[in-house]
Batch of 4 targets.
Target 1
Amino acid sequence: MTRESAAGFADQAASSLANILVIFACARVMDVASFGEASVAFAIVTAIIMGCRGFLGTSLAVLSGDHDRVKSELDRASGAALLLGFFIGLILVLYGAWSDSSIWIVFGLGCPFLAAQDVIRYGAISLSRSTLALTSDLVRLVVSIVCFASTFTSHHQFPPVAIVGSWPAGAVLSVLVVCFVLKVRPSPRSFIVLMADRLRERLGYAFDTLMMSVTSILYIVILTSLLGNEGVAGLRGAGTLLGPLNTMVAGLSLVMVPRLARSKASVSAMIREVIPLTTAMCVVAGLCGSLGFWLPESLGSALLGPTWVAAAIVLPIMAVEYALTAIRTSLSTILRARRAASRLVVARIASTVGMLTVAAVGPLFGGPEAVAWGMVMNSAVGVTIVAVLLTSLSRGQRPLK
């Protein structure tokens, strides 16, 4: 792994940890109702960020290698992210005012900066400045650590609203750092010009990332309604133990799409390029999954409490699912790098339909274990579909319209 790639994965790890610490801090200082409200708002804003990431961030990544064009596009994309975040955030602010909720108001006010920060870090990596992207997310991480640490004082240093506000506050500082170093000049006025440029391709990327986020939320909602909180606990617990792999998978597009786009290689050459990293992720999945077989119950309970017993049963099965997901994601990065956005849409629709079908039907066939095996089958089908799409692409067929 190159230094640039390592910095990219470290950036994703820092970003994920910053987000997790804010959630933990909120859980420590809020009552159950307030934390539930904050969790919903967090999920919605995350979905917004994911949509902007696809529409604007991925569109930057596929241009990697053309420094001048990426730099010009970054000015427009960062401005567009601020503008989109402003209008969507305004809806959240109005809802917060209507429902008398300061939590929604803070999330709404922070939405433009959170969206812009994510797009700008994609721009930095597309300009081969992964270390700068890492620095920007380390700024966010420091803010999150300070807020999380404050919750352990005898008298909380920050009120709950300030804890929520630390998330966008860290994003603001991060945006300022990158904009200063790269001399980025966000240009919201260029939004119309940007919309007219590769709109269909951008919408394909946005659909892919947004549906991935929304489907994950719907999957948990459906499972909870059918299995109850106790039934879902084992699946969620196993997912927590597979967290290191989640971070690696999340970093794939961030790191590999610019790298593959710069190479301008053939599909077969790109596949060879992702094999070492994909193999490493499958090994990590196997190691995490093996915990369900050999980890003593005392240690497992120390990690997950009473949830460990249920999690240990499904953990090896879910490890297979996560390994297949890693393979699918690796292959999908090639579709992105080759700018086959419409093929990504096909793959995402198939994955979404399969995932929601498993959530709705799986509990009828044996509870959490049946759901876990259903997700393995869905992931296997997903790998097959992406492989077929890549095969057609490698044969020189035009991208699907």
Note: Residues 397-401 have pLDDT under 50 and may be disordered.
Target 2
Amino acid sequence: MTRSAADVSGHGIVAWGLVMALGGMTLTWIHLAGLGGFDLSLAYAACIGLGLLMLLRPAQSLQAATRLGQSVLPWLCFYLLYLLILALHLAGFPDKGLILRQAFFLVCGLTVATALVQADGEAPVLRRAGMIAVLGFLAISEFLAQQSGESWMTAVQRFFVQGDLNYVLYGFLRALFQAAGDGVAAASAKNIVASGLFVALVLYRAGHMSVLPDRKGQAMTLLVLTLLLIFSTRSVLLIALLAMLMATILAENRARKSRGAGLVLRVFALVSLAVLLAFVLSTDQAATARIGDRFSFADASTVGRLHQLEFALAGIEHSVLLGSGLSEINGQLVHNLFLGAWLHGGLLAFLAVLCAYVAIVVGWLNFVIRIAQRRSNWVLPARPEWVATLPLLPLLRVWIAGDAGHPGYPEWLALMIFFALLTANKHASRSMPQIRVSAVRRGVLI
């Protein structure tokens, strides 16, 4: 048995269940059953299975949940208040399972976070989960695509050689999601998978324990960035690039013999990569032309969001205190958590969700500042520079995401995993005071 396997097995069956639950986060498109306005997918079933496994160790699970509660309650109370207010305002309206989804995602996130605290935030758990989530998605999607005569090789060729984005999005991805679901695939399905791929990448990079450069992590980064480009999910791709830059700066800052020149060179490399990408997109090749159109922010999606903004502000102005209830424009809810909260739930709902958001941001910034100032503030083997990037996805996506801007399944997992690792680190710092600064691994750059 390898060292990583021994570390994971040392925490028993719950740790292995956690690996599988996190590894399945990119399989939200595989439909198992329908429950009212809620679709039970393979990813959700894996999380439910983890919860059942945790019942086998109730004392340890309760202890881990108690520790976690101290970290999440400052903002979770406000968010639960927001959901309560929203539920009261939408009572009697066909909310399409909005409240149910948020409650379920919250429970799933808390389940995963509790299991991770119970597993002491072990880096091998993160590494294995990230690998399974990415490679498992590719393997399963390729197997299902083969059943209908399609293949990832064909999709990649059509995308990069012919620039046939319509085929990739509708002829391949949506057809794949429809075949694995109930015959219907929402346009947001690829965005959810893309978000899951980002979280998987961060977990994989955070789980690197060696002092040597993470070559496998770099290869995984390139693979996930390519997938995000093919998925044409602009927000997730930009968040991934921002996460890379943030991780680079934090890792260099935490390096013992950090030199300003080293940081400048690495930031320059990332900026050069962005400039090169922009140059390539400016060429007349088929693929780059289509990608350039997609990332020009002048498409129907951007225009639609601007119309939603105008619609939401008009609805809020009409009823500032109580909101306008469940209001849609062109059959869609407003793609913004804060405007949606005010529009659908009134001023009190807006203030509640705003307080929750601010509390999360304060906790996140406090963590970033602490690990940047003192290396000894982080004692877990997991890479803190990558852990710090986890909240980027939920904090940024709520401004533009569908379902009234509410965090989706991957966003809730990212946020809860972040606070779970903070909780595990806090517990490790208290229970192992003999750990020296030299025990903290040197940050590995991208």
Note: The chain has one domain: 3-429.
Target 3
Amino acid sequence: MIEKKSVPFLLIERKLVACSATWLLTLIVFALIGAAIKSPSYILYAPIFLGFYSGAALLFAGIPVSLLSDWVSKKLPFRPLWAFIIHVGGGALVMNDLLGEGDGGGDNRLNIFAVMLGAAFAAVFWLVDEWYRRRLRKKAE
């Protein structure tokens, strides 16, 4: 007989699954970016180097933003939409804060791309989190 897991354990499990899946996707995306620019060293080192930083960002910023999203959107109408907005906004803000304000002028296209990438990865985090939430709910029934 399978024991019922406690609610906090299921919440942590759900967040870690979403974090892990998003992190694996970041590794793949960074390797594909390296392949697109035809840089063998980038294909090898970018997933390792950037994977470390993206993993840390997901663990120490993505999970707290997701927990905040759950708490804020818990009783709101259209909960998934509000959770999505909070996730994407949080991902964009975290990337913006990690990159800083830039050099005060010039071309900030790389910063804009990184912020958009952070928002996209936050959307993936949200998608996996919502999918796993529904999966656990169906399993409980």
Note: The longest helix spans residues 40-73.
Target 4
Amino acid sequence: MPMANENSFPCASSPAPHHFEHISFAVCPRDAVTEDGVAYVEAQVLPLLGGRPLVGRDNPVVFDAASVLGHGIRDTEFWPFTCSCGVPECVGQNEPIAMKVDDTVVMWFVSEEGIASRSADMVEGLTGPCELRFQRTQYESALEDLKQTLLQLEQDRRLPVAFFPGKLYAHNLVDTVSERIERAAERFAQRDREAQERLELFGDLLPLEVHVTFSNRARFSFSVENLAWLYAGRHDVERPQSELDEVLQETVAVFKRDRGAIIAAARSLPYSALADVTWLITRGVDNWEELAVLEAEELEPLWPEAVLEIVGPLPNGT
């Protein structure tokens, strides 16, 4: 993790119960033009803790105001910090921030990686792991002030206002500020519903992975969840979705009862069927720098002799 300097925020892992951070937002507008020549206002939003910026204007890590406003105040996981392209992993933000709320308090739980750019020194940011505690009324007020500032900017400039990361084209600016926030809220609510459905279906299978070691020392892994989807749907893609859902439920039930069935299901598939959901494991592999990301056809002949193992908490706590 990048080292913090005097501009970063070292954060106590367990703040005093009555200690609250004061959050606010600065909006920095500038004139801009999309890739296809449409004028708009780029409104960079800087989050402030006690008046000090968490990330500054020149930091590769940017604050995604649309995400924060869209999530509102509720128990969730989200990425308020991301890359200018919109992909958090580009700037080392691999873990979401968990937000927990009650009637009086909003808390952000920041992972060990903290909030920082991939640089030798953290120019601005937040060291982790830690908790940030906000008074709910103050947090609500800060979000409302941010929303009203963006709405006023839109009204004053009479141009589309962009307050979200990503390379922009004219079609990205169709929504007004209010519509953008509403769409973000709908998208995140749908994501949370789908996450709950996944949890109800897969349960303790969700954290499990199958690790694959080939005879050439290449090591890959894939999630048991992805394996279940592939295995359940591999026979007949023409079948109705209701039938595929039923097969998936049956497959998951078998996986939960017998972890040996997980390995057997993986073995029954050609490696080419799994290739799109595998990723290279580099940790713990000698000279992994020399390993190329091999094409499926190169690994297919090695698949029958590959060593498979399940990694993670075992189903049903066993």
Note: Residues 1-10, 117-123, 282-293 have pLDDT under 50 and may be disordered.
